[in-house]
Amino acid sequence: MRRIFYAVLLLGLLASVGAAAEPALLPDRIGPWQADGPAKNYSLKELPANWIGSSLDGHILHEAGLVRVENRTYKNGDQSWSVRLWVLGDPSGAYELHTALLDPQVSKPGSVEDTIASGAGLFLTGNLVMQGISSSMEIPLEDLRTLRNALAAKADRTPYPPLKSYLPVTWRVFGTERYALGPVGFRAAMASLGQRAYADLADHVGFQSGVEAMLAKYQGQYGSGVLLLLEYPTPQLAEQHLHHLEEALPDAAKRSGVTVERKASLLSLVFEPTSAMHAQAIRDEVNYNTEVTWNEPSHTATDPPMVVMIAKIFLYTGLFLGFATGVGIAFGGLRVVIKRLFPGKVFDRPESIEVLQLGLSGKKIDASDMY
What's the CA gap between 260 and 276, in Å, rounded? Predict the structure, then answer.
């Protein structure tokens, strides 16, 4: 029993040493900013309560695959800046967390992967989400880019989900993009876009089948709406869940004009559309094209020019004719020489020659008379 206790204690010590020895991702210096101390690591269970707000909770972090959080404070004279680095298992989980942190009230137009939030900054690079916290000043964009470049060299560069590129740019309200890998993220996204009444659709879209969801709010000159895109692994699954969603839609949604449309593996819904025409206009802007390819073994044509082919035909035909003529002459000449040297002994021996005769005369034919 004592040995088991010591073994468990040893394993715990090794695990703590391994965790402590894990290298920090945040650099010691960012331009003129110097780190105030070593980075502090937090697991999901150790996160401070004030880090989790209405748009972010532990369930979303668990669904997104949070590995740990690094927190480090930087100083430049009497100014300080706290950086919170969320480390996720893969870029898809990081993208879900990043969109959950977006705030349309403070976000500026730009790429979702390189968002600049007013005041401190919010960056996504690979499987890392950087969140700057500063209440007294606005961090210069140049320093934010310096930090992003330093983190990009250490991040997982696996591509982000292609679903994000399907969202139309026209009429989109920047900062309302939401990506969901599972039902928790889906419910939170629907609630953040004012569609809490339809959050229960998370039980019907089929996250257990590998579906991914992307949402955004659109505000155009002639109306508005919230676009939901659902991408399934196969068109067959998309068709199957299309009927499930049609049955699961509340009556209020059907009366307001919410419909489900399918294009190959992609389903689209527009919630609270100003009009059916505007909802269709948003759908028409979706950047999704199906493509059927058939890959077969192929080779590069290496046929020479026609003139070269004809010249080779004449050349090799002439060589063949010359070889055949030479062999014929050699064989005939050898036969003549042997007959001269050894007449009637090698070729045309009388005893080996047989002549058929009709018997019109009684004289027997002598085969030697023929030569």
Answer: 12
Looking at the DSSP bridge assignments, the partners of residue 81 are 74
Q: For 161-213, how does the pLDDT look when each residue is reduced to its tens digit (9 = 90+)?
A: 999 899 999 899 988 999 999 999 999 999 999 999 999 999 999 999 999 99
Please name the helix (run of DSSP H) or strand (run of DSSP E) that holds residue 85, with its range, or none.
strand 79-88
User: Nearest-CA neighbor of 227 among 185, 200, 261?
Assistant: 261
* Residue-wise pLDDT tens digits, 70-128: 999 999 888 888 899 999 999 999 999 999 988 776 655 555 445 554 445 788 899 99
**Residues in the chain, total:** 371
Gyration radius of the chain's alpha carbons:
42
* H/E segment holding residue 67: strand 66-76
Interatomic CA distance for residues 97 and 115, integer angstroms: 13
- Please give the C-alpha separations between residue 268 and each of 83, 175, 256, 359, in angstroms, as whole numbers: 37, 20, 16, 105
Which one-letter DSSP state was computed for residue 45?
A: G
